[in-house]
């Protein structure tokens, strides 16, 4: 079974999808955004000019991403190094939005994502899972929330990790990323025609998880 969950940054896709996958026997959760973040982190760390599409394309030859699961939690590895704890900063979020617009980057990861879905029953989240990566997914969900709600959640998340930032900065970054993701030429963020819309703005985390589980359960 394949479940595609798309939506904007900070909508809670990763948390909700992970919880939903754990509640469905035999399913694994695949955070595709984390893989993109891993690549963005590596490019930024290595000093690659991410505004130069050709430079990014060339740098991809030396980047080998993979994922593994530790106690049920997905970890992202780049060239064998676990970078999972370094990829959730605002800087890497914006860099991810930038490099994910490049066709070379999306092509680089497309087959990796599809191979995982062929080999496992998956709940996979991202920006273009239901529209591009898994257009024939059994279940498609578009998970969203207001920009203000998403900014507050991200602030709380970063503060809990010891990297606090101002609400105003996070909100501005989210609005900018929404614009970048929805207006890019390659695989823009949009709701698939056959996706179920789930707006979590006024939901608790448990309510959001239950809403997604109900959508999935209705298709089984």
β-strand amount: 15-25%
Distance between the termini: 9 Å
Radius of gyration: 16 Å
Tally of helical segments: 9
Structure notes:
The structure is a single chain. The chain is an alpha/beta fold. It has one domain (2-217): Rossmann fold (3-Layer(aba) Sandwich). Helices cover 50% and strands 18% of the residues. The chain has a five-stranded parallel β-sheet with strand order 2-6-1-7-8, sandwiched between helices. It is globular, with a radius of gyration of 16 Å. The protein starts with a strand and ends with a helix. 42% of the residues are buried. The model has no long low-confidence stretch (mean pLDDT 92).
Question: What descriptive keywords fit this protein?
Answer:
single chain; alpha/beta; Rossmann fold; five-stranded parallel sheet; three-stranded antiparallel sheet
How is this fold's topology laid out?
Layout: E1 2-6, H1 13-23, E2 27-31, H2 32-46, H3 53-59, E3 65-70, E4 73-78, E5 81-82, H4 90-99, H5 103-119, E6 121-126, H6 129-133, E7 139-144, H7 147-160, H8 167-183, E8 196-199, H9 205-217
Parallel strand pairs: 1-6, 1-7, 2-6, 7-8
Antiparallel strand pairs: 3-4, 4-5
Helix pairs in contact: 1-9, 2-4, 4-8, 7-8
Short description:
50% of the residues lie in helices and 18% in strands. It is of the alpha/beta class and 220 residues long.
């Amino acid at each position: 079974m394949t479940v595609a969950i798309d939506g904007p940054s900070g909508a809670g896709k990763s948390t909700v999808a992970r919880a939903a996958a754990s509640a469905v026997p035999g399913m694994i959760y695949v955070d595709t955004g984390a893989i993109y973040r891993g690549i963005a982190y590596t490019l930024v760390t290595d000093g690659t000019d991410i505004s130069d599409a050709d430079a990014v394309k060339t740098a991809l030859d030396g980047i080998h991403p993979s994922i593994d699961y530790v106690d049920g939690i997905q970890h992202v590895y780049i060239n064998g190094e676990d970078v999972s704890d370094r990829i959730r900063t605002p800087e890497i979020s914006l860099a991810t939005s930038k490099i994910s617009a490049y066709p070379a980057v999306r092509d680089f990861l497309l087959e990796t994502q599809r191979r995982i879905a062929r080999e496992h029953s998956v709940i996979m989240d991202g920006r273009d899972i239901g529209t591009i990566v898994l257009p024939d997914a059994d279940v498609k969900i578009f998970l969203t929330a207001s920009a203000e709600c998403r900014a507050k959640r991200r602030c709380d998340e970063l503060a809990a990790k010891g990297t606090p930032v101002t609400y105003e900065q996070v909100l501005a970054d989210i609005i900018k990323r929404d614009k970048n993701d929805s207006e890019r030429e390659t695989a823009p963020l949009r709701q698939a025609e056959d996706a179920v819309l789930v707006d979590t703005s006024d939901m608790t985390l448990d309510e959001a998880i239950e809403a997604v589980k109900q959508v999935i359960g209705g298709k089984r």
